[in-house]
């Protein structure tokens, strides 16, 4: 096992632990934790024994293990892109609703400014 | 295009529809019940004149500063009967919906959309308001191709015709001008339509919402003033492409 394999396996191992703990503590969503965990474990297995990846790839009709990894990474990145885009859309929509709400509130308060106790007393005849 | 729900949808205009009678003098009660919504973005140079030209006929003008970086907000506070501000820029669609919500909450009987760059004419607005108030339709849309179209720049003409064709194919909507910013909606129509496309794709979204609403729609001939200022502020080819992408993604994402 060369140095790169060791660094990669260690990094993916930390990521897997992070996903496991985060998922259990609910600090990250369960689906995201599960995805990170699966990707990390598959990555550890592939890095630890590249020949295993090649054998598995050949069973799927793909010549090289490298190609299989590239395809999987492409799928994961694309799925991540879609998820983040939809989340960004949702956040932008919520920002718009917030901005619109604030605009109307500000305009309403300008038209009907908050009354001081003196104003209130003057209008309803009571002592301030 | 649905023809149900008790309304007659008049999307398809016959080729030689006579021009509706121009009614320059609007009933003051109709004017007071109509709230004019003007989204404003970096229009400090032009907006005072635009609002000043409207207020003699329509006292309820709502101008929404959509996060301008110039002196627009200062000008609006000085000249607009109702000035609202988005603290960050959220686009024309969002500003229109803000103004609509504000006006409906204050009892508006009709809502009109009017551009801030001075390209629309008050006469056209009055004719369309009179049409909606008189029960000719629930939604009045400006049609620049039925009006004096001689000033339309060639590239703009091509873009707009492509948009019309696109909507006929994508939405089944048969309108003559789908991206005209001059619109008048009855209170019921404005209440039933909620714009969610923040940026310029809102014009396409409004057409889709109108098509689904089953409300009575009529196009009115209008003349757009393509001044140098309005041309400089207008959409470009790249902008149109961006609008198309936003519209398609919005339809897919729901």
Biggest sheet architecture of chain B? 7 strands, mixed
Tally of contiguous helical segments of chain A: 5
For this entry, what is the oligomeric state of its chains?
heterodimer
Task: Bin the strand percentage of chain A.
Answer: under 5%
Return the domain count of chain B: 1
**What gyration radius of chain B follows from the Cα positions, in whole Å?**
17 Å
Order of helices and strands of chain B: HEHEHEHEHEHEHHEHH
Instruction: Name the average pLDDT of chain A.
Output: 86
Annotated CATH topology of chain B: Spore Coat Polysaccharide Biosynthesis Protein SpsA, Chain A
Strand order of the largest sheet of chain B: 3-2-1-4-6-5-7
Q: Termini separation of chain B (Å)?
A: 19 Å
Outline type of chain B: globular
Structural class of chain B: alpha/beta
**Distance N to C terminus of chain A:** 83 Å
Give the overall pLDDT of chain B as a whole number: 82
Question: How would you characterize the overall build of this protein?
Answer:
- With 128 residues, chain A is mainly alpha-helical.
- Chain A has five helices and no strands.
- Chain A has helices at 3-25, 30-48, 50-59, 65-111, 117-124.
- Chain A is elongated.
- Residues 124-128 of chain A have low confidence and may be disordered.
- In chain B, strand 1 (34-40), helix 2 and strand 2 (61-66) form a beta-alpha-beta unit.
- Residues 1-23 of chain B have low confidence and may be disordered.
- The relative contact order of chain B is 0.17.
- The A-B interface holds A 86, 89, 92-93, 95-96, 99-100, 102-104, 106-107 and B 64, 82-88, 90-91, 94, 97-98, 101-102, 105, 196, 198, 253.
């Amino acid at each position: 096992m060369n140095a790169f394999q060791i660094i990669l396996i260690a990094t993916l191992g930390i990521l897997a632990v992070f996903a496991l703990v985060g998922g259990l503590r609910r600090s990250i969503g369960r689906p995201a934790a599960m995805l990170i965990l699966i990707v990390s474990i598959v990555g550890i297995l592939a890095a630890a024994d590249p020949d295993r990846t090649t054998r598995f790839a050949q069973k799927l009709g793909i010549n090289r293990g490298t190609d299989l990894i590239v395809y999987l990474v492409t799928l994961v990145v694309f799925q991540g892109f879609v998820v983040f885009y939809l989340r960004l859309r949702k956040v932008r929509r919520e920002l718009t609703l917030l901005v619109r709400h604030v605009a109307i509130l500000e305009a309403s308060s300008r038209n009907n400014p908050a009354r001081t106790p003196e104003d209130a007393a003057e209008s309803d005849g009571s002592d301030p | 295009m649905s023809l149900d729900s008790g309304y007659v949808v008049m999307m398809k205009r016959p080729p030689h529809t006579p021009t509706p009678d121009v009614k320059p003098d609007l009933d003051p009660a109709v004017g007071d019940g109509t709230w004019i919504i003007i989204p404003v973005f970096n229009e400090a140079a032009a907006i005072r004149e635009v609002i000043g030209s409207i207020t003699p006929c329509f006292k309820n003008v709502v101008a929404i500063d959509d996060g301008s970086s110039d002196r627009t907000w200062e000008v609006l506070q000085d000249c607009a009967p109702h000035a609202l501000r988005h603290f960050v820029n959220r686009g024309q669609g969002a500003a229109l919906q803000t103004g609509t919500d504000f006006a409906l909450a204050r009892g508006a009987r009709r809502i009109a959309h009017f551009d801030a760059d001075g390209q629309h004419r008050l006469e056209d607005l009055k004719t369309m308001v009179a049409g909606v108030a008189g029960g000719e339709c629930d939604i009045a849309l400006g049609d620049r191709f039925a009006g004096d179209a001689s000033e339309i720049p060639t590239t703009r003409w091509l873009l707009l015709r492509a948009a019309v064709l696109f909507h006929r194919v994508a939405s089944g909507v048969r309108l003559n001008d789908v991206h005209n910013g001059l619109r008048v909606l009855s209170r019921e129509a404005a209440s039933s339509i909620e714009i969610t496309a923040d940026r310029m794709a809102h014009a396409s979204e409004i057409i889709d919402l109108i098509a689904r609403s089953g409300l009575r729609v009529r196009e009115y001939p209008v003349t757009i003033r393509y001044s140098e200022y309005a041309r400089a502020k207008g959409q470009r080819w790249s902008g149109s492409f961006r609008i198309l992408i936003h519209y398609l993604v919005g339809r897919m994402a729901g």
